[in-house]
Amino acid sequence: MSKKVFVFFPDGVGLRNFAFTKFKSIGEEMGFDITYWNNTIFDLESELGFKQVTIENHQIHPLTPIYSRARKRAELNVSRDKFNDDVYPTYKFPFSYKGLKNTFKSLYTRLLIGLYSSEQGVEKIRHKINALERKNPKYAYCKAQLEQHQPDLIFCTTQRATQSISALLAAKDLGIPTVAFVYSWDNVPKAMQVVETDYYCVWSEHMKREVLQYYPFVKPEQVFVTGTPQFEPHYNHSLKETREDFFNTYGLDVNKQYICYSGDDETTSPLDQYYLEDLANAVRSLNTKGYNLGIIYRKCPVDFTNRYDAVIKNNADIIEVLDPIWKQVGSQWNQVLPSPEDFKMLYNVCEHSAFVTNVCSSTVFDFVAHDKACIYYNYEQPQLKEGIRDIGQNYKYVHFRSMPSEKAAIFCTDKNELEHQVKQILDGQLTNVPEGKAWFKIIVGPTPTEASKKIWEAILNILNHK
Prior knowledge:
Layout: E1 4-9, H1 15-18, H2 23-29, E2 33-38, H3 44-48, E3 52-54, H4 64-83, H5 99-116, H6 119-135, H7 137-149, E4 153-156, H8 165-173, E5 178-181, E6 199-202, H9 205-214, E7 223-225, H10 243-249, E8 257-262, H11 272-287, E9 293-298, H12 309-314, E10 319-321, E11 326-328, E12 336-338, H13 341-352, E13 355-358, H14 363-368, E14 373-377, E15 410-412, H15 418-426, H16 433-444, H17 451-464
Parallel strand pairs: 1-2, 1-4, 2-3, 4-5, 5-6, 6-7, 8-9, 8-13, 9-10, 13-14, 14-15
Antiparallel strand pairs: 11-12
Helix pairs in contact: 4-5, 4-6, 7-8, 11-15
Protein name: UDP-glycosyltransferase
GO molecular function: transferase activity
Keywords: Transferase
């Protein structure tokens, strides 16, 4: 009899990895009966033909967001003290005191942080959040769904969503094994582990060490190194179009060589548009020296600002906009959902661009999978002023310490050097690809094409030893 697995989407961020890759078909080939437990507003049944159980109740306890924020800040305080490292406070977002409601929430959160900034205190906050969510009507709602459908295991596609807490507690209280996938390469040091599950799937041995370092209550046997499906499409060569076909589809000039500018969200890079402008200026200068270059601007899918518009308009002869094929189905960042077609676009943007430039994005790995270089901008813009975040702090974050050498990316630390670096890459005199591949192996693991299979093997292992 096949094992029934609920693949749980508490929000839309996991769709790209677990609905639009071959994850489901691989699981079915291995004999699993797969149902998507769907808390998103993306209808998996009508859009993709997947069997789903829809969670209509999206309620969380009113105090959960406050306690969750306090838990995160308290964890970061513990890490600061435990590792004697001042990087951890830089992960914190500022409090808001606009209006009476926000002021109350901020003051109450600060009180909780003051009371619980210890390992024992963090554990107490986690217990408090669980107690609140067990009182939340969604807990009983999800418990009833699980009793009706009786899955053998719940696989949660992200560890960072408060929407998942009550559902996973219901599963645990019914004795159903729970597994969480650690969603992103920077999540563990940033105290992004919202849920506690029986098991965890992580990208690499590096990430496993992080989980055990930051969460001593997790035992080594609870953590499975699987890789991430995120990069699997880059090895699916059926997605590849010829240069001519791709350029014709998006109205690109086949006589030009294009550099990809991968945009960032406003929080990470608030002055991102000026780096695009710097690249445009460098390209314009090189074009007067015999080159024939253009820029493909691919925005961050969750950036809703118009901050790039003036730069794009002023450089319309150089910059071509290729927006990610994502759909906005709600107002929140996690309600901007990818489409399967975007895999093909991203594959071919990587394949047919000379290289990529951006601020600290994981697109360094997308491009290195295609043997393409990456420039990271790491200089201040003159528009920087008090209250605007300096991008330089991004490169001090813990996940950047995983770089095997400074050459794992090409850092542009001076605007005046950008044109020269671009020229060197184009002329084959500068690259980060060998060291970038070594970094990719550290972060993603040695078998990037086998992540989906390894996750299902971990699930099978868990069920066989239940």
